[in-house]
Amino acid sequence: MPNDEAAIENEIQSKGLTAPRITPADIDATISGEDYHRFPGTTLTICCLTLQNGFTVTGESAAASPENYDEAIGRRIARENARQKIWALEGYLLRNRLHRTAIS
Prior knowledge:
- With about 100 residues, the protein is α+β, with helices and mostly antiparallel strands.
- It has one domain: Double Stranded RNA Binding Domain, CATH 3.30.160.
- The protein is about 50% helix and about 20% strand.
- The protein contains 3 helices and 3 strands, in the order ααβββα.
- A hairpin with a 4-residue loop joins strand 2 and strand 3.
- The longest helix has about 35 residues, at about 70-104.
């Protein structure tokens, strides 16, 4: 979990905000696999996260200067970019469940 994400989670908990929500742990629990690809001759790294239901999300990273390319950093940035996309997907699912509960 990124530091800023942990800080936000701590603030939510300290304020006692207990309504249904998505947590960083929920996001991590949706991920069942990850794959990486670096395009030959470039600094472009792609991360593909596979979610529990089989859906995939991708993230990317690229160094502007090839001399600054570091595989571990590239993978970490690409993974975080992919992981960020899960928040919107899970938020939509939660909002949809809350809506369906409210109208039934």
